[in-house]
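Researcher: Hi, I'm a grad student and pretty new to this. My advisor asked me to get structures for two proteins we've been looking at. I'm not sure of the right format, so I'll just paste the first sequence and hope you can take it from there.
Model: That works fine. Here's the first sequence with its structure tokens right after it:
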Amino acid sequence: MSGSNHTNTSFFLTGIPGLEAVHVWFSIPLCAMYVATLAGNSLILWVVKVEPALHQPMYYFLSMLAMTDLGLSASTLPTMLTIYMLGHREVTLDICLAQLFFIHSFSIMESSVLLTMAFDRFVAISNPLRYGTILTSPRIAIVGLAILVRSISLHIPAPIMLKKLPYCQSHLLSHSYCLHPDVMKLACADTHINSAYGLFVVLSTLGVDSVLIVLSYVLILQTVLTIASKAERLKALNTCVSHICSVLLFYTPMIGLSMIHRFGKQASPCSRVLLSYLHFLTPPVLNPVVYTIKTKQIQQRMLRLFWSGRTVVRDTQGH
């Protein structure tokens, strides 16, 4: 393939197969989800910033999770809305490679943040007296920087390697956004190196993170079982509920999608698309809801904000 042809390569994204005629109606719940993601995560960031009682390691990690969710939503937003609102499915190679870089990078960031939050819960339960001295602000900043460097550096090679491949097969992608395995399978050249690289990244990040999260909760459970008081045991476990929900929201659809790709060859394309949406779209929407419901400090601050807003409205109406 000539250099000019390679430069002009475009791909065609897929919405929900078989429902193309009603795609415009799907734009309504999608827009609602993106607005909810922006509002919920921005509100979490604002509450943690203005509430001195929340200037603690747990809420710093929650802020990292909120920023990651915002980044992940922003990565999928452009192509999702153009497909469902405008019916425009074509995307150039460069834009596609940029999108897959950000989607995969933010996915790894989310996994890394969930791992650090598991470690945070382990330290808080197993060694509460030293919690503040172990997870100091400088150490939290270093952890955040390490998460950023890890996620970006591991995915820089992906678009570079894909850029060099010729694409002479069907340019129809399986999802509404560009993903590394999806683009790679359209190449008409040997992709064993790309495949091995992708597998290495997944195993060394999502694979290792998930194993360490499970190990953290095994250690947490062992510590909790040593607590004599039943009420104290329940109180300790209750502090982990929000994090467990976030882990399940992130990893369950991903595992299901992986199983379908490997063993469910007869599965409908629609099921793969919907699982993909569950993996990339629902955690950014539901994580703020989960943490708001389970965190009294965040609830109280939001209630104060709500009631102060109502008071201002009443005063304005009175005048």
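Researcher: Oh nice, that was easy. Here's the second one.
Model: And its structure:
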Amino acid sequence: MASAVCGRFLLHRSTSRFLFSSRAVPAFSSPFLSRGHRLEPGDDELYQRTTVSVMQKERDGGILINSYSSAGFNIDGNRVFGPCALLPPAILQWNVGTHKDITEESVSLFHMLEPRIELLVLGTGARLERIDPSVLALLKRKGIAVEVQDTPNACATFNFLVSERRVVAAGLIPPSASTALEVQQE
């Protein structure tokens, strides 16, 4: 009689709470006591609460740019010479020479990625350079935000976004060698 008055309860393992059912069921007719019973949608409201989570193994962090020079980049201890495309977790050589070589074709690898990237950081070298508006329009149509900066700032921005676990990629052109400190001979 007590089991007919009281609702049945189950211990929810992940939160250590009791879940109460509004249906009163005698303990001897519980489907959990029978070995061969398989839950069907109509058997129990817990059937609808069943969820499955698939978790991918992810690296603790993403790839980070340790340093840059006029020759290339040091990315997680890997030396990359010349322009590169960072598509975490991949590091690829990027076939561009200057900001003028950033075309719809050269950025096509960024919008074909799966899962789709949220943001593309473009480093245009030692100075911030203007990118062809048709390239920016293509990336916008594909749902990718673009941040165009000089390469030193682009590296810092990329590292910051990776540390926030954002889905980000980068196209980087090494900055040219600085001539600011050279002494002119007379």
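Researcher: Is there anything I should tell my advisor about the second?
Model: You could mention this: Residues 151-163 form the longest helix (13 residues).
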